[in-house]
TrEMBL record:
Single GO term (MF): nucleotide binding
Pfam family name, one: GFO_IDH_MocA
Residue ranges of domain Oxidoreductase putative C-terminal in the record: 206-347
Protein name: NAD binding dehydrogenase
Region annotation (Disordered) ranges: 1-34
Domain Gfo/Idh/MocA-like oxidoreductase N-terminal: 50-203
Species, as recorded: Coprinopsis marcescibilis
Biased composition annotated in UniProt, kind: Basic and acidic residues: 1-14
Top-level division of the source organism's lineage: Eukaryota
Coiled-coil segments: none
Length: 436
């Protein structure tokens, strides 16, 4: 007798196709069959305006050639004609006006025709009419301006004060700054929790159907994860933002980007014993770290602020399982190469290519071969926005089905702390780098 239930290959596959969930409601996960792509869903019902406040007029909010992110686009589809963007807050008011002009010149004009551009929250609050009260705020400003309790870096606390009860969507990483400030970040999390504010953090990979299928297999077979192996290799040639290459601005590629896979590792492995983290990096000035196709001029960045080219880390989870993470700045072209392997007794679950065409390779007891499951046309950016909006609607409508928000602020703070632990450990072991 084995403690596992052993689904046949076709069981796994047919469960995936089924739109009827047999699984009990599980906290922190969603039945994968309920994650539908944007073009397979109608916009949410109702007729009243759904006011949204945007903070930041940059790439995450309005899209960029570097990737599929674009929150405004997903909100337009989720809310349809109900969407009213009441204001766009950005100190770079020119950039804000430019993106608004494009929206007003398109078929989604009704969401943006009355959008006001404000250079900060205070300006919006002072001039806001009762009709403009937001139901949700999307925070896509750079992380250095949020996640603390210090003036001008405390947007969450300001929003909780000005708009109590109004839902917050916060981009990852939830903060950047020195590690000594992390206590403030946890306090922000407590304030959000204590006020019972709906809050979702933009770790969208948790909303991949493939990731939820992995959760379902683990849950259905009552598995205990033994080991996570995460590899995140970005296509550096396509990264044209100078700040990304500057540790004093981005805080480095593990904190800024690898955070997605550190977060996924925690999602499967649980809490990390931070004192166990060991890490090494290749710095920009070491022979293996030479890059021939950077699209920025790195000579403009002071040497001590240049980013490492590869960072590799291992750790113990608090339950004794082990984790392994590598971030590499090595690939050219556009597509990233990212994989996450999760092992448990008898099982390996390997997620491949989550950003482009997610594929899951499953090995299970009774078969030495892997079963391949593809998840074409999945859109985790839409799913995270969709679940966020559904939770807001559900608050006011008991009949409305709400799926779980998969990344809370407090949980995201732990992922942020893990990425700092990796950076610190790599810099401690590497005499050529300095913490900036
Ligand atoms: N989940 C993802 O895959 C993903 C993808 C892209 C970006 N992001 C995250 O989104 C956040 C923003 O990144 P981006 O690429 O949009 O950056 P960006 O530089 O393109 O845009 C940021 C915008 O914020 C504005 N800004 C600066 N200070 C501000 C303040 N105090 N208040 C309001 N706006 C302010 C800037 O003027 C700029 O227009 C980052 O945390 C980033 O990591 C996440």
């Amino acid at each position: 007798m084995t403690k596992h239930t052993m689904p046949e290959k076709h069981d796994l596959l047919s469960r995936n196709r089924s739109h009827i969930s047999q699984a009990p409601h599980r906290r922190g996960s969603i039945d994968p069959s309920k994650l539908l792509p944007m073009d397979k869903t109608a916009h949410i019902g109702g007729h009243d305006n759904f006011n949204v406040l945007f903070i930041g007029a940059g790439n995450i909010m309005f899209g960029s050639p570097e990737g599929p992110w674009n929150h405004s686009f997903r909100l337009e589809h989720k809310l349809g004609p109900r969407l009213k963007v009441v204001a766009l807050i950005d100190p770079s008011t020119e950039r804000a006006k430019e993106v608004l002009a494009k929206k007003r010149d398109s078929f989604v004009v009704s969401a943006y025709q009355d959008t006001r551009v404000c250079s900060n929250l205070e300006e919006f609050v002072k001039t806001m009419t009762p009709n403009e009260l937001p139901r949700a705020v999307i925070i896509g400003s750079p992380p250095m301006f949020r996640g603390t309790l210090q003036p001008n870096r405390d947007i969450e606390a300001q929003l909780l004060k000005q708009f109590p009860g109004v839902a917050l969507f916060v981009e990852k990483p939830i903060a950047t700054g020195s590690l000594s400030e992390i206590e403030q970040t946890y306090k922000v999390g407590k304030m959000i929790d204590n006020s019972k504010t709906i809050c979702s953090v933009g770790y969208m990979l948790r909303y991949l159907k493939a990731v939820q299928m992995m959760k379902k297999i683990i849950h259905d077979n009552q598995l205990t994860v033994m080991c996570t192996i995460a590899r995140y290799a970005c296509a550096y040639e396509a990264i044209a933002k100078p700040d990304w290459w500057d540790k004093s601005k981005s805080y480095g590629p593990v904190i800024e980007q690898g955070t997605h896979f550190c977060d996924l590792s925690r999602y499967f492995g649980g809490e990390v014993d931070l004192s166990s983290v060991v890490a090494h990096s290749i710095e920009w000035n070491e022979a293996p770290g030479k890059l021939s196709k950077m699209s920025i001029d790195e000579s403009k960045i002071p040497p001590e602020r240049r980013i490492p080219r590869a960072t590799t880390a291992t750790w113990k989870y608090q339950n004794g399982a082990v984790g392994n993470f590598t971030h590499v700045v090595a690939l050219q072209g556009n597509n990233y190469s990212c994989e996450l392997e999760v092992y448990a007794d008898g099982y390996s679950l390997k997620l491949v290519n989550p950003y482009v065409q997610p594929v899951l390779y499953i090995r299970q007891p009774g078969d030495d071969n892997e079963t391949k499951m593809a998840f074409p046309d999945d859109d985790p950016f839409f799913s995270e926005i969709s679940v966020f909006i559904d939770n807001i609607e559900a608050k006011d409508n008991a009949d409305f089905e709400d799926l779980h928000i998969l990344s809370s602020y407090e949980d995201a703070a732990r992922s942020y702390e893990l990425t700092w632990a990796i950076r610190n450990a790599s810099e401690k072991n590497d005499t050529k780098s300095k913490a900036v």
